[in-house]
Predict the structure.
Amino acid sequence: MTRQESFKIRIRARMEKTGERYGAARRTLIARSGTHGRTWVAEPEMSDTAVREATGRGWDEWCDLIEAWPGHAEGHTAIAAHLQDAQGLDGWWAQTVTVGYERITGIRLPYQRADGTFTAGKSKTVTVDAAELRRALLDDAARVDVFGGIESTLRSSPDAKVLRFGIGSGVAQIDIAARDDGRAKVTVAHEKLPKAEDVPVWKAFWTEWLAAIDGA
């Protein structure tokens, strides 16, 4: 994916979120990029101030340093290893800086994983019996109703802590944690989505699903 394509996806995402026309959304994103020494295709998760306080460098400096290293074209794993070996970052910060660099330069879009796929996540504490919800998800027939008629396939062991289901164009991991008050915290990570455009679609689906099972 080119940087131009990545930027267009960000424009469309902002249009969907704010209702702005294409030109207005584009101008806003360009204006934001202009506050940095380089054009940022996407914002990193960590602020410039936070990464500078923790590592001694801001995002533009890290991007310049990474691009000055001849091996940066070898990809995520090579960059993260280089930051650990040559720059003294620990494993967590090496990964964080690498992902930030990938977002800023358009190599990786928001919600995108190192393998190029995307993840849509949602979590909510709902009024539902954790054991009953788990039983329904493990029953093939009941699961069709639980997912509103959408077909799915169990991809994990039935006794796994986090259940995995093939659904739509990806794989949904569902963690159900019982609370002392009788409710349950349900966390969904819908992984392996092939396109950035899939993220808002499945985020909306899981938002509605969690609302539907709340008190059902």
Observations:
- The CA atoms of residues 155 and 213 lie 22 Å apart.
- The chain has a mean pLDDT of 89.
